[in-house]
Specification:
Blueprint lengths: L2 E2 L6 E2 L7 H23 L7 E6 L5 E5 L7 E2 L5 E7 L3 E6 L3 E7 L13 E4 L3
Antiparallel strand pairs: 1-2, 3-4, 3-6, 5-9, 7-8, 7-9
Length: 125
């Protein structure tokens, strides 16, 4: 049964134990939510127009629209098969913080489907 939160005017609904898959998506949702907020604040002039697509856990496809330029983004979970659908080059790295082996992808190009990566930067300097 929903209960009223005394600190706010919203009604909170308890989370059941069956919501486990949702809990797994929270880190990704937080990253993407932060990116959406950053893109809103900076404007599209500082974004790589287009969509970056990759394959995550259990073969599920993920997409990021108009990613920010010149900012290293760490992946929150397993990532492979990067596809650059933006209008600018990008570089994927095997380690977080844009370290390790690098693979540069021109606009419209894709990495091999099994090529894993842990971070990405769009329009690298």
């Amino acid at each position: 049964m929903p209960r009223k939160d005394p600190r706010t005017s919203t009604t909170a609904t308890p989370v059941s134990a069956k919501a486990t898959p949702v809990r797994l998506c929270r880190p990704l949702a937080a990253v993407l939510g932060g990116l959406a907020l950053a893109l809103t604040a900076t404007g599209s002039a500082l974004a790589a127009d287009g969509t970056f697509i990759w394959i995550g856990p259990q073969g599920k496809a993920y997409a990021l629209d108009n990613p920010p330029d010149d900012k290293c983004l760490d992946m929150a979970q397993e990532a492979r098969g990067a596809r650059n659908g933006t209008k600018k080059p990008l570089v994927v790295y095997t380690k977080k913080r844009c370290k390790g082996s690098a693979l540069r992808l021109a606009p419209g190009r894709s990495a091999p489907a099994n090529a894993r990566f842990a971070s990405v930067v769009f329009s690298p300097r």
